[in-house]
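cache lookup: miss for this entity combination. No prior model stored, computing from scratch. Input as submitted by user K.M.:
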Amino acid sequence: MTGRTAEPATEAADDDGGELLAGTRGTSRRGLRRLLLVGTAAVLVLGGCGFLHAAHRLNSAPSAENRALTDTEATARVAGEVGNALARVFSYTPDGTAAAERSARTVLDGRAARQYDVLFDRVRGDVAEQRVTLSTRAVRTGVVELDGDRARLLVFLDQTSRRGTDAATTAPAQLTVTARLRDDRWRIVDITAR
Amino acid sequence: MRRARILTGAGLVLALGFCGTGAWTYAQARTDDTLAYGRERDEALADGRAAVAVLTTLDASTRQRAERGVRAWRAVSTGPLREELGRAGAESGASARGTVTEAAVTALDPRTGTAKLIATVRVEVTSAGSSRPAVDRKRLEAVLARTGEAEWKVRALSAVPLTAAEEGEDR
């Protein structure tokens, strides 16, 4: 760098009349070099921005926000808790509806709790009168979405019911369940039949 | 003069550092196993959903349409299911239209390229004579395999059966 800047200086010393010309040549070359440096810097900064933007897009893509299956522990936990909760609230004996309703108060919330109350008010009389027993098992549980304290699951249930001394009948039920993590416990806030 | 040069040099080094950091961050995100796993899961879910809808649908109003339907089945299946469908003859008869109402991936192994999916399907069946479709709801389980073209296809599809009530549980 120093070698090159020295060049116009010697030229200027050789020829007094060319001083002006040599000076402009020096500045134009310096200007070109500066332009090149600024250009390189700009390209580097732009490239950096591009990389950061691409990385941000990868990190904040919907597939990255959803921790279903990627977080094995959390996925197994929400699937287990929701499956158990459904089995408990939809299982009762003619004399033991209180246990199911008690479970419902601890695991259901929001719209799901209201839906359950309406449903139970309707069947409570029949359950005692006709000696209905219902037992529910979750046979498949899939976590569709898991995002921090919210989860959406698809649950396949088998429900075995018996009226008095009749033979038991088993029917399938498929539910989409929305759950929320509150006080370190997954609570079901919405249930939709599929 | 010298100060300007130092400033330019420092600026260049900063720009280079910024670009390097960006590239490194991007490389990290690109090779992150969890992110890659999440992407695979969503691809398997999307491909699986579409495939299950195709496999529960058949327009058999004419023989040609039925043949086209069976070809569509073969296009979204692989392995044993594809072989089985290859033997299926196409005849006109009852038509079905399946819509996947919900689906979830229950297991995924990106290394071997296998996944399991459960889905609820609403199937409208129209028999040859009648115009009014009968609606049926099904719960299905599918085994998916990633084929060479980074596409998930169905290896096996079955209804999730009712389990017999265990002794004591229904008491």
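stored under new cache key. Chain A is about 55% helix and 25% strand.
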